[in-house]
Amino acid sequence: MLKIFRRIRQKLISENSFRKYLVYAIGEIVLVVIGILIALQINNLNEDKKDRNFEIKMLSEIERTLESDKDYIQKMLKRLEKLDSTSNYFMELSKRNVLYHDSIFFKIFSLNRGISYYINSGPYQAVKSVGIDKISNDSLRNKLINFYDFDLPRYEDNFKHTNRNYREDIETLLKLLGDRYINNNNDINFIAYKNIPLNIFQQQEFLEILSNINWRSGSSKQIYKTTFEELENLIQEVKQEIKHD
Q: How far is the C-alpha of 110 from the C-alpha of 173, rounded, in Å?
């Protein structure tokens, strides 16, 4: 192709036809510019494709993490249901003035059932580190920012505040159970308790522990359920964006 243009140019020069040569030169410049624009367009399309592939990959990671977080929240809610059931059980014993007996010793320790609050923001932070604008959907991007940068820290603080007295209550419960000793049963050593008060279920400290458990449980449930709803909404939004590709 270049040889053809070179021959035409040489022919016009040899014929000393300046006007024809000028037209040719302009045409050649136009063709070069068009070629450059086409190359730039192809390059831009390739870059856009790379960006989109990266976006889909990161959104897929975020989706998997959101699904995992949702499963975790469901497990915590089930744990709270068991804790509520145990707490209500002992409240009934207290109301009926039931005295302690060894058959329910291990059930007391179910009151020690702990809960936690952890949402994995790793994939979101990875996107944020390379530029949150990599997420092209404005609505989805804003919802992710709102959840991870604003709502989540608030939920974490609320959960921490709600459960701030958990360890103190457990320490109080262990003191109420009396003296500890090492028991050996079938050559297995374990910590046991002796002199457990028969009226432990009617003692004010025990009732206060039950009251604290109920309050923590109710407040924590609300945090979990609010988080769960946001996770479900985000999962649907992310899935729609991935399918949109």
A: 11
Q: How far is residue 95 from each of residues 76, 98, 200, measured CA to CA in Å?
A: 28, 8, 12
For residue 185, is it left (φ>0), alpha (ψ between -120 and 50) or beta? beta
How many whole angstroms separate alpha carbon 162 and alpha carbon 154?
12
The answer to whether residues 67 and 61 touch, using CB atoms and an 8 Å cutoff, is no
Instruction: Please list, residue by residue across 22-56, b when 16 or more beta carbons sit within 10 angstroms of its beta carbon and e when fewer do.
Output: eebeeeeeeeeeeeeeeeeeeeeeeeeeeeeeebe
Strand partners, 188: 185
CB 217 within 8 A of CB 80: yes
For residue 221, give both structure tokens: 């449930």
Report the alpha-carbon distance of residue 191 to residue 81 in Å, rounded: 28
Give the residue carrying structure tokens 């609300």: 222
One digit per residue, pLDDT tens: the chain, 245 residues?
545 555 655 554 555 555 554 555 565 666 666 666 665 665 555 555 677 888 899 999 999 999 999 999 999 999 999 999 999 999 999 999 999 998 888 899 889 888 999 999 999 999 999 888 888 899 999 999 999 999 999 999 999 999 999 999 999 998 888 887 777 666 666 677 778 899 999 999 999 999 999 999 999 999 999 999 999 999 999 999 988 76
Residues contacting 36, CB < 8 A, separation 6+: none
